[in-house]
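Okay, is this right?
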Amino acid sequence: KWHPKIEGMRWLDPLALLSPDQRHQTLLVANRHPQSAIETNIKLAGFIPETKVEIARLAPKQLLEQANLDTPDALRPPTETIRIQGDSLMLTLPPHSLTRVIFTRR
């Protein structure tokens, strides 16, 4: 309903940003699929991160969910810190979500 059926369309839309001091790498990944979570392996090339990464996910329960004056924090993405080993991270991205991962250089 929200996405026209396009043959070969990629559901994941990633964007990687390196801080000016090259100490932090931020990865933003949108899962545009309306119903399916997608598992993906993030592999960093040329960037060895600390063992802890910060993850924030904006994943509304309903597609058109919104914040308003009565509930301004309704869509505030919760953050968590997780441990990783090496230079890769397995993530499960909820349907219609935006996930931010912040890596800090070791």
